[in-house]
Design brief:
With about 450 residues, the chain is of the alpha/beta class. The protein has 13 helices and 16 strands.
Length: about 450
């Protein structure tokens, strides 16, 4: 008998009509089925995700403001789903528990988790499946990171008792015993954890696009769908902003060798994207580049000092200054007499004076230059390892589009080239690169 883990994202469960599509997809499968559900997402472009409504409601409660109308609006989202599905579900008692929590000791992660909790319970009721609350089976350590082994053991035990269950996505229990969520989009991670614990044959990740696309569809018109991609490529692309799947969702399934299939709830007939451990000689398919992704919001801190190349430990000291401020770095391009660190602008801004003072005191530079407004774009593909001239093609495409390159980093993984450009050039640059490699 096959075992399938299926995760449905927010847009796939945004309202009752989407629930019906989800149910018919699930019912078309056979075997042991473990479903992970997100909170209701947007029903249309200008709609609000329930998770965002929950955060806003928590903000009111924590400021001791009246949260009743904002809680009512959340309840109305679920009520509409229940009524249109024609099921019996006691929303009143669920919401009185939430209201009491908000009045007593509001907790941000607990509040955010209620979207997944309620939606999954409703889906379980609709399907006639068991409901599994991850607060009892998904555990984080003291460091705030998932305790993968404990989680796997406990979850495997719970799943072994049932062949059909819905597990709520996005949260578990922290080291302090309170509810703790993953970062945004984290139901993808829950899906991967469930797939591993169930020893699933496949992890199906159902969303609102027909798989991983070779570029962000909000920037490039009708980008090609990617039929097959390696875990490594997917992780590079999702980390760099191809937001279809959470970047941390790769690890649990990769170690277990479980393939991921990204599918479209609105077009279940499409094959979607297969994410696999290895791709057979990718250069042969003629596609050297698998995808392009990027993000805005980076800054560069450049430290210049004559004869820097002779100063032992300079790089370590600079990175240590950044790390001590609690800021993580993205890239470290360096030259003979200068070294730059690319960091997230918001994190840097919050620690700017502390970092700059330390640079002055510890490194005694000739000059320190901060550049903000940088966007990073990654061109990713396994085929690059075998093929020359990819970098040249990237640079000529950007030059032709009159995009100024501020930073270049050929990733040490050999499967990506990353360029830093000015934020206003971002959309133009992504399109120029897409045209060069895909059209
Ligand atoms: P879900 O609610 O199902 O988790 P998400 O909104 O998290 O869905 O992810 C799907 C969205 O990711 C798509 O609607 C699309 O706009 C966006 N996206 C960005 N980059 C890509 C890409 N390279 N391929 C596919 N989708 C992408
Ligand atoms: N509902 C959460 C979010 O909006 C988690 C998820 O959808 O994966 O980020
Ligand atoms: Mg998502």
């Amino acid at each position: 008998m096959k075992t399938i883990a299926m995760k449905f994202g927010g847009s796939s469960l945004a309202d009752a009509s989407q629930f019906k599509k989800v149910a018919s997809i699930i019912k078309s499968h056979e075997g042991k089925l473990y479903v992970v559900a997100s909170a209701p997402g947007k029903r249309c472009k200008d709609d609000t995700k329930v998770t965002d409504m929950l955060y806003a409601c928590y903000d009111s409660a924590s400021q001791k403001a009246d949260f009743s109308s904002s809680l009512d609006a959340i309840k109305a989202r679920f009520s509409e789903i229940i009524v249109n599905l024609g099921i019996t579900f006691d929303l009143d008692s669920e919401f009185s528990v939430i209201a009491k929590h908000l009045s007593d000791t509001p907790q941000r992660d607990y509040m955010a988790s209620r979207g997944e909790y309620l939606n999954s319970k409703i889906l379980a009721t609709y399907l006639g499946y068991d409901f599994i609350d991850p607060a009892n089976y998904v555990f984080f350590g003291q460091d705030g990171v998932l305790n993968a082994e404990r989680t796997n053991t406990e979850l495997a035990r719970a799943l072994s008792k049932t062949d059909h269950a819905v597990v709520a996505g996005f949260y578990g229990t922290g080291a302090d015993g309170k509810v703790k969520t993953f970062s945004r989009g984290g139901s993808d991670v829950t899906g991967a954890i469930v797939a591993r614990a169930a020893k699933a044959d496949v992890y199906e990740n159902w969303t609102d696009v027909s798989g991983m696309l070779s570029a962000d569809p909000r920037i490039v018109k009708d980008p090609d769908a990617i039929e097959e991609i390696s875990y490594k490529e997917l992780r590079e692309l999702s980390y760099m902003g191809a937001s279809v799947m959470h970047e941390d969702a790769v690890f649990p399934v990769r170690s277990a060798g479980i393939p991921i299939n990204i599918r479209n709830t609105n077009r279940p007939q499409d094959k979607g994207t297969w994410i696999v451990a290895h791709r057979e000689n990718p250069a042969q398919s003629g596609k050297i580049v698998t995808g392009i992704a990027g993000k805005k919001g980076f800054s560069s801190l450049r430290v210049e000092k004559a004869m820097l190349n002779n100063e032992v430990g300079f790089a370590a000291k600079l990175l240590n200054i950044i790390a001590s401020a609690g800021v993580s770095f993205e890239h470290v391009p360096s030259a003979i007499d200068s070294m730059s660190v690319i960091v997230d602008s918001a994190a840097f801004r919050a620690n700017r004076s502390r970092i700059l003072e330390s640079v002055q005191d510890i490194l005694h530079p000739d000059a320190t230059i901060v550049d903000t407004g940088i966007a990073l774009i990654a061109v990713v593909g396994m085929g690059m390892v075998y093929k020359k001239g990819v970098a040249a093609k990237v640079f000529s495409a950007l030059a032709k589009a009159e995009v100024n390159i501020r930073m270049i980093d050929q990733g040490s993984s050999e499967i990506n080239i990353i360029v830093g450009i000015d934020e206003p050039d971002y959309e133009k640059a992504v399109n120029a690169l897409y045209d060069a490699f895909f059209r």
